[in-house]
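Render this sequence as a predicted structure.
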Amino acid sequence: MAVKGDLRVKSTKPGTGASRDEKAGNLALNYPMVMMASFSEAFAGLASGMAQAVVAGTEAVAQGLTDALSDGQGKTRKKVKVPSAADAGAEASKKTREAFDEMRTEMRQEFGKDKRSFQQFVRNPAFDEGIRIVEAYDFGIPKFTETLSDADLESYIVLLKKEDPKFGEMLQKLSHWQETVPPFKKGRTG
């Protein structure tokens, strides 16, 4: 899920001899995407839980309305329908994930709009430290400095959910490193 054709960052599978700029470009895209995906998962779970709680409360109101609409002889003139809590939770979770997917796509497109500025951005010497941090860890999946697939991204989310101590350590170091990287600006020439 790294850069596809929009920035033409070459595949950086192990043994391909990726350039420093290719590694930096993939890091510049993959690290924020993994972080956004982790937030997506967290928000999707939160949205799902909230939707389920709202539906559970709504069910009682719906039952009261249904009773109020009955004819007094046990026959209901009209039943108020409420979506199931599971359906509401799944829908809220799906919409949240879609919103984060859209944000990730926009980020890739934004970087891709101005390739020259992006190339200048990743040439910043601060990326050397980020590359060093990432390449010091091996989780058995492609590194942030490589091209990541959706499955690779999901594998990183699993590491995050399992609170893998080495992955947490790497993310903490990357968080401190990221503070040293100047923000990307379109139209940057040097």
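Summary. Residues 20-39+90-178 form one domain. The radius of gyration is 23 Å.
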